[in-house]
Design brief:
The protein is of the alpha+beta class and 99 residues long. It has helices at residues 32-47, 52-59, and strands at residues 11-12, 15-16, 81-82, 85-86. The protein has a domain at 13-76: Thiol Ester Dehydrase, Chain A. It has two helices and four strands.
C-alpha cells in the first residue's frame, strides 16, 4: 500500500453544518460531532494514501473508537462551518483474538 509521508502541518477538513445536524434550537446535536470527526479521519487517511477498504479486506485492520474524552469549545449553529486542525493520535492496538 503506497502511503505518502506525514507532514508536520495539521490536516484541515471543512465541515458545513446542515439542518439535519441540528436540534430544535438550530444547534449541532452533540453526537454529530463524532460523525464530523469520522469524516475528517477518513479524509485525513485518504490524504495520506491509505485505502481503508484495502486495510479491511486484505489486511483485516479496522478503526475503532476506544475512548472519547470530547469537549466542545464552542457551540456550532445551523449554516455554521467547522474548520480546525486535525491532529489525530494513532494508538496501535493488538490484533483481535477470535474466541
Amino acid at each position: 500500500m503506497a502511503m505518502s509521508e506525514p507532514t508536520s502541518k495539521p490536516f484541515e477538513f471543512p465541515v458545513r453544518v446542515y439542518y439535519e445536524d441540528t436540534d430544535a434550537q438550530g444547534v449541532v446535536y452533540y453526537a454529530n460531532y463524532f460523525r464530523f470527526m469520522e469524516r475528517a479521519r477518513t479524509e485525513w487517511l485518504q490524504s495520506l494514501g491509505i485505502d481503508m477498504v484495502q486495510l479491511q479486506d486484505e489486511e483485516r485492520h479496522i478503526f475503532v473508537l476506544g475512548a472519547s474524552p470530547v469537549g466542545v469549545g464552542r457551540v456550532i449553529s445551523l449554516s455554521g462551518n467547522l474548520l480546525g486542525p486535525i491532529r489525530p493520535p494513532v494508538t496501535p492496538l493488538r490484533p483481535h483474538q477470535s474466541t
